[in-house]
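Forum > Structural Biology > Help requests

Title: Can anyone predict the 3D structure of AcrR family transcriptional regulator?

Hi all, first post here. I have the sequence for AcrR family transcriptional regulator but no way to get a structure on my laptop. I'd be grateful if someone could post the structure tokens.
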Amino acid sequence: MEEQTTTTRRGETYAGRSREQRSNERRARIMASAVHLFGTRDYDDVTVADICAGAKVSKRYFYEHFDDRPDLLLKVNRDQNEWLLRGVAAAIPERPATLEELFRPALHTLVDMLKSNPESARVIYVNAPRMETRRRGVLREDAQFVAAVLRRAGGRPQDQSGYDRTLLALVAGLSEVIIDWISHDMVGDPDRLADHLTGIALALTTRAAVL
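Reply #1:
Sure, ran it for you. Structure tokens for AcrR family transcriptional regulator below:
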């Protein structure tokens, strides 16, 4: 019995790391490789073999974590979008006095994060639109995020359905402007872009909410 226990432990632990730890590390390397490749190439030009080579894992380990390449892109996109929203949320004052105090730091932070992480930017905004269902879901999630932060400024809708549509139009419109910027290699002054995005956000939300 003791010998069986020792054998099991040897099989589960390697170089001081458990089987679960090694599995998590492989998954993280696959995700990082995917961000790099999807962020520097067109989606159609990236193969599972390319991703595995970048992660230094075999295809066997790839399929332990992901169904296929579209499944990987979906999960990478979700992970990167959550990273971006966390950064934006952290930049927003707890109790902004005006909509401008809410949107200006949020959108400047968003642009700065994308500018500093161009591969992540392409994963979120350029390759992701290929997944139309996911893209629509992200827009609705982002609209809900905006609604939540607007409540910090005391915003309340005059008309709930119109308010929801306005926020959906806002995030969709901002996304298209950002996609255009990323597609043109992020040329131009990022602060000016953030100011333009802030102006768009203020123009739409001022009509939709009373502060």
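Residues 1-10 have pLDDT under 50 and may be disordered. The longest strand covers residues 13-14.
Shout if anything looks off.
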